[in-house]
Design brief:
By secondary structure, the chain is α/β, with parallel strands linked by helices. It has helices at residues 2-20, 103-106, 155-159, 187-195, 215-221, and strands at residues 22-29, 66-67, 76-77, 86-89, 92-99, 110-115, 124-131, 139-143, 204-211. Strand 4 and strand 5 form a beta hairpin. Residues 23-223 form the Glycosyl hydrolases family 45 active site domain.
Length: 228
């Protein structure tokens, strides 16, 4: 009976830990598309937004602007240059990410994760979800200039990027030196990956949990989720 009780207690403790921290991985993106959370219909329950989108020169997108990754013309909406990572200190950064396959489940929510593998092991980020779709429920696609355009490329329309983006279409540039291929206003966010995180970031393991959003992130995105 003693052993059975101990086994049951250990199982309950592990279940509690699993609820508090979930395992996942990180990838990178910078496709210049209007974020999915830029549509009011995609916001998570209780969120006030939507997420800001920008015009070609990073001013506010005009009324009626269409997502640059699915439309052509002069009135287009893109991601904003302000969605680059923000260094808080040597162990913590803020930023933005795509997370989850269903926008209404994740849009505008914030998450804190800690890397458990790769050069950034032990370092953490707090990110706000501004995009969703085609991303698993346990992965975070971090907005990092030069992080790869993936399936859709709005960077050619916005910045004249190569047809498959800077570096690899999936994963982006492969060294800090390649960040100099990017427009000057995006280079700091590209260097962040190599100089702060210490490497590629793609497929590095993490544990994460949902947290309340720092005001520094919501003031950039323009979207505030329901408190937890």
């Amino acid at each position: 009976m003693f052993k059975l009780v101990n086994i049951l207690f250990a199982s309950l403790a592990l279940a509690t830990l699993a609820r508090g921290q979930t395992a996942g991985t990180t990838t990178t993106t910078w496709d210049c598309c209007e974020p999915a959370c830029g549509y009011t219909s995609n916001l998570s329950a209780g969120a006030r937004g939507p997420v800001r989108s920008c015009n070609k020169t990073n001013g506010p997108a005009a009324s009626g602007a269409q997502n640059a990754c699915f439309s052509s013309g002069s009135n287009l909406a893109f991601s904003c240059q302000t969605y680059q990572p923000i260094i808080i200190n040597s162990m913590l950064s803020y930023g933005f990410a795509g997370h989850g396959n269903t926008a209404t489940a994740t849009c505008c929510k914030c998450y804190q994760f800690t890397w458990t593998s790769g050069a950034a092991a032990g370092k953490s980020m707090i990110v706000q979800s501004i995009n969703a779709g085609g991303i698993t429920d346990t992965d975070f696609d971090i907005y990092t200039p030069g992080g790869g355009v993936g399936d859709y490329n709005g960077c050619t329309a916005q910045y004249g990027a190569p047809a498959t983006g800077w570096g690899r279409q999936y994963g982006g540039v492969t060294s800090d030196a390649e960040c100099y291929q990017l427009p000057s206003n995006l280079q700091a966010g590209c260097h962040w990956r190599w100089q702060w995180a210490g490497g590629d970031i793609n497929n590095w393991k993490i544990t994460y949990k949902q947290v309340n959003c720092p005001s520094q992130l919501t003031s950039i995105s323009g979207c505030t989720p329901a408190p937890i």
